[in-house]
Specification:
This protein is 34% helix and 23% strand. It is built from 31 helices and 38 strands. Strands 14, 15, 16, 17, 18, 19, 20, 21 and 22 form a nine-stranded mixed sheet that branches. Strands 8, 9, 10, 11, 12, 13 and 23 form a seven-stranded mixed sheet that branches. Strands 2-1-29-30 form a four-stranded parallel sheet, covered by helices on one side. Helix 2 packs across helix 23, helix 6 packs antiparallel against helix 7 and helix 25 runs antiparallel to helix 26. It starts with a helix and ends with a strand. It binds one RNA strand of 89 nucleotides through helix 7, strand 9, strand 13, helix 11 and strand 32.
Length: 946
Amino acid sequence: MYNFEKIEKKWRKYWEENKTFKTDIWDFSKPKFYALDMFPYPSGVGLHAGHPEGYTATDIVSRMKRMQGYNVLHPMGYDSFGLPAEQYAVKTGNNPNGFTDANIETFTEQLKSIGFDYDWSRVIKTSDPKFYKWTQWIFKQLYLDGYAKYIDMPVNWCEELGTVLSNDEVIDGKSERGGFPVVRRNMKQWVIDQVAFAERLLAGLDEVDWPESTKEMQRNWIGKSIGAHVVFKVKDTDKEFKVFTTRCDTLFGATYCVMAPEHELVDMITTDDKKDEVEAYKKLCATKSDLERTELNKEKTGVFIGAYAINPVNNKEIPIYISDYVLASYGTGAIMAVPAHDERDYEFAKKFDIPIIQVLAKNIIGSGDSAIREDRPITEREVVNAIIKHPTEDKYLCVHNKKFNWINFVMGGIEGDESPTDAAIREVKEETGYTDIIIDKELEFLYFDNFYQAQKEVNRHITCHTVVGKLNSLERIEISEEEQAIADVEWIDSNELLKVLSTEAHRYDALRALNDEGAYTEDGTHINSGFLDGLNEEEAIDTMISWLEENNCGSRQVNYRMREWIFARQRYWGEPMPIVYLEDGSIHILDDNELPLVLPELKDYKGHGGKAPLENAVDWKKYDHKGIKGVREVSTMPGSAGSSWYFLRYIDPDNEEEFANQELLKHWMPVDLYIGGPEHAVGHLMYSRIWNNYLYDKGLSPVKEPFKKLVHQGMILGSNGIKMGKRYPEFAVNPLDIVKNYGADTLRLYEMFMGPLEASKPWNQQGVEGAQKFLDRVYRLYESGKIKEESNKNLEKIYHQTVKKVTDDFESLGFNTAISQMMIFINAVYKEDVFPLEYAEGFVKLLNPVAPHITEELWEMLGHNETIAFASWPTYDEAKIIEDTKEIAVQVNGKVRATITISIDEDEDSIKNKALKAENVLKHTEGKEIVKVIVIKGKIVNIVVK
RNA sequence: GCCUGAGUGGCGGAAUUGGUAGACGCACAGGACUUAAAAUCCUGCGAGAUUCAACCCUCGUGCCGGUUCAAGUCCGGCCUUAGGCACCA
């Protein structure tokens, strides 16, 4: 066993003493490569098994790039503002600084022990005033440009934590940290108007090489929806209100409106007789936490406020309700409700017995033999389908047409002024003879069926009604001979219906009759809609928007789900805001030379009664500077402030004049490879894009998108296949134990060999031993004396293949397959007596990014006295990879029957001949007719026989 | 409910544009070395049928169907699972 302890210690010392990985940031002579890891929060428990995974991945790429001649920037730092340090301060009364620094020291030591190639001279921490000076400075610019605002707005308030939370810190109505209930409350808040960036954020996603899932999450989070504003006048008042809708085409079906209980108009238009009821409902909603609201949203609640709105399109008076299913914070806080075509409105209308008007009808179009024929006339018809249940069994009445072998429900035309129900009863009697019929209901939504009826040579345009009922008894009369000749009665089991019914129309009916019908939310043809009749959804939306605009009662409108970013927390351990409130109530922002505004030391770090801890800093709070007097803002910035721009600061961490030198930024941005956990898919990665986008607009960042390529490492699970954590501590793995017992190189190799970087995968202790065994096997090979300055033709091809595969796979982050190829190579070398020096050196370089310590040692054993870190990356010769002969498979009817060896330039006829003559092929072709021989050059031969 | 992914041996996982499924590793089994064990080296290892044995044969990438000379890979319909969103009008 090679002595990993001694070797690893030796080389870490060497790198540190020789400053091997210090980046010469001003050296623009080489191409640059910026590899970035998501910096950790320095918690007290130190690194966990997941950290080294992503960090090793960037480490491998940066080491390879360095050897390929790039100037590499691979920095590390600490996101050191955060809740645990605050809680520690509250508990002990000590400043979080000391606690944080101690943790950082542990982290640094642990990171160093794994042998990453970080430039430790550029470490930053977000809680360092030298760093947060510039966080404050950027915030100041946002304020001066009108993006940072102090406004009154409803916020997520968590009583337990005593602070406001952003939407992504609230999960299911509970705080992300601690799981405490969160309620909505109106408060004056510092916010950043991120909605102003929405379009640019969406467009930027098309430019970056990110996982599709992450892009999709960001798009959903931005939540762009295109629709229209429609203005409704309130009857008998001069008031009007706007609603936002994506379905203005259904306006003719709007049978009521709903406002959020908090809507400003509610109090003004509620009629006197409804005031008490409305007040009571508003109070109920206000005291409900978000949690209760989500839990209770199973059933719709609401109150009619007595007022009516005028539907602009037909001047109908429709009632106005308030309900908490309409959110004050989205759209205009009011909606038009179209119960026929919206699930939520449907549910509400059912409960409050509000009319439902169908304005869209499903339009079934025949295909194949029943496709509409242009050259035939169209006949219109109105029919009813009768879905009749058996009196005792779970079966439905169908008729089996003898001539066409169709099975359908009883169906027939509606005649004169007959109702669908009457027509159904009549048809059932006529066609089946059953007389004891009870019709329960007519389905709410009619539909159209369009098809070509071959036996009558006409196109049918049928309006279909559907009734559902049952037989009370099997009482039956004789049916006419004519009817008998056409069809037989058949009872079909309910779960067979969908398989057995012959037409799409009847299957659609069965589906609706057997389940609750609900709203019709698909596309269709407009009906009951005046000038929209006959149009489909898309056409109708355009037509309606034009109409609204012409008549001054609405307009096209884009809406976003994303809201303002609440940018203040009632906490101590965060960046103080550079804001002062003057006596006249106006806001004063600090001069640049007053930055950084440093956090004061406190005796008591707890905020009392929901107030910010900085309220306790009585002297600090008072502001008196150059004759300006006021009170400082006591909230601090959220945790995501510093991390929103830290990647820029790494480039120039000690600059005291600006957040980073512009020339350096121009050279080094964007980040070429960014690796971190998927949990930051929206939060941090969105905020960073917003800040960078803003700085780009100001000309302070050279690129629109800061992270060119992004990859999320998967989670490393416990050996039980479950997430490591407090729940199953016996399955958790501490990476430092692995470093101690097996070595850092083994840890790195193992974590990279476990599987694809992005997949989550369970830990396997025997796999760790396997990784160590491989390194030991390599080490023994280099000690064996096989390495000679000779050539060995047997290894030529596999060596060049290995160089190519490893280079390509490192580039595409396929570390597991790269390592697999290195194992294959070593296995091959073991079978040989001579390991040419050239290949031995090349292999050490390939392995170096994964296992840097042992390879430095091997490099030294090969006679080098300088680090391998800058040795030139091995190259391969494509010509040596191409094999002059190749074994390919011969299939007969798609099944492999033999393999033949062909030479690389062999012509097709010769290959064909060889294939046909192969022994086992002859067995399978004997006595059969050879239909076709397919030869795919260099790949496969397939012989088709009959 | 909606949006993304993912389902391959005992296990982690490989398989270019469709072209010999199971690379590599782990586990397991056998052998060599050893007084013995460990370590190391070599060999085997999807399931089944058959055979003294080898060849050979059948089945096999979540399920059902389709396209193709050829499907883990493409298409349609399901099932399971992970992550995200969730009264967003």
